[in-house]
Amino acid sequence: MAKKTITVGIIGFGTVGAGTARILLQNAEIIRRRLGAPVLLKSISDLDIKRDRGIRLGDVKLTTAARDVIADPDIDIIVELIGGYAPAKEFIFDAIRNGKHVVTANKALLAVHGEEIYAAAEKAGVNVGFEASVAGGIPILKSLREGLAANRIESIYGIVNGTCNYILTLMMNEGRKFDEVLKEAQAKGYAEADPTFDIEGIDSAHKLAIITMLAYGTPVRFDDIYTEGISKITPLDIEFARELGCKIKLLAITKMVNGEIEARVHPTMLPESYPIATVDGVFNALSVSGDAVGSTLFYGRGAGDLPTGSAVVADIMDIGRDILSGCTGRSPLAAFRERANLKIRKMEDITSCYYLRFAAIDKPGVLSKISGVLGKNHISIESVIQKGRKEAEAVPLVMMTHEAVERNVRKALDEINKMDCVGGPTMVIRVEEGKQS
Ligand code: HSE
User: Fold this and answer.
1) Which fold has domain 141-301?
2) 321: which DSSP letter?
3) Which SS3 state, helix, strand or coil, does residue 295 take?
4) What is the pLDDT of residues 82-116, one digit of tens each?
5) Which of 50, 148, 209, 369 is the most buried (most CB within 10 A)?
6) From the CA of 221, how far away is ligand 1's center (Å)?
7) How many CA atoms lie within 13 A of 370 on its CB side?
8) Could you give the residue range(s) of every CATH 3.40.50.720 domain in the chain?
9) Tens digits of per-residue pLDDT, 138-193?
């Protein structure tokens, strides 16, 4: 007899687990009407089942035994929302071995072990949904896998970490220092007690590894991605950016350049007129360019219980549709049936325009010495700004370059940073002026 109910077990009753449960229970009717069958939340496991999450759970069983949920023969879909590597990885593999479909928001795990997980699921004939792993409620993975499937993806520029975007927005709007704004973000619950993953770009790189795989069909691991965070950005750089008509955003960038993939996360200066530059606060956005579609822009909340739960439940419904139709794997998990093995370009080989802020000793001849080293390394200067006048002391000297090769920039800065006329390390911010939506 054809199956009439889709049964779900959730592992992890934290913020996203609670949001998912709330949506499944509160929107049960619209979910049933859209799917053509009810979705039954049978059980939830968590180490803490005492805390009141403010949700009327009715007949939903609460347990501390995740393995009982994974082994329950009535459950079709296991939703893993504990995050991290262990025991999440084991739970996912156990669920796949038990013939369960899996939904997860675990970007860190997928960025490192995605290929093993997709292969195990495809072999076992089950689905893995991971829309919630990137940009919370924005349906970017489904768009890459399905809506934009006809395109060669040219580039993706993403603001995929709300914590960093919130911090940079406050630094920009209020002229405040990074450390001070970070403390405030932590107090408001926008940043974790240990914010390293967010502020050092690691969370964005995890998400970029997943996006890049879906865009180009080439497995990209977290380690392949050049990652630089926002902790070194100063109010002075924000002020210079403003003067140049730009904003500084932490961008996750992937693009195809001469048959090679660039995948990198770093603070990026971009003209404030670009739509993605207008995305402020905790919001996320991704600008995707395809050869057929042109430029597209996706915008929304990248975190939080209900936005992320929205993506989790959409995956449950997608898998539910397959279950009801008696099929799996209609859409390849990583968007490509056949993997490619494209080269990931080394960071030293990329080209970009650069913002260079030197701590230049204010005396005659310094500008020509610095520009001499840049010229020798094939770096052409577009404009120069010097602020202040402090004879024989360091003052900020900003140079905007034309497009240059990263290797040449690093070589030039190695030499410049050792010069007597330079009073400290040079601040480098890459500048994007390419095709953007
Ligand atoms: N820590 C992430 C952010 C949210 O700040 O955007 C979850 O991916």
Assistant:
1) Dihydrodipicolinate Reductase; domain 2 (3.30.360)
2) H
3) strand
4) 999 999 999 999 999 999 999 999 999 999 999 99
5) 209
6) 19
7) 26
8) 6-137+305-325
9) 999 999 999 999 999 999 999 999 999 999 999 999 999 999 999 998 998 878 78
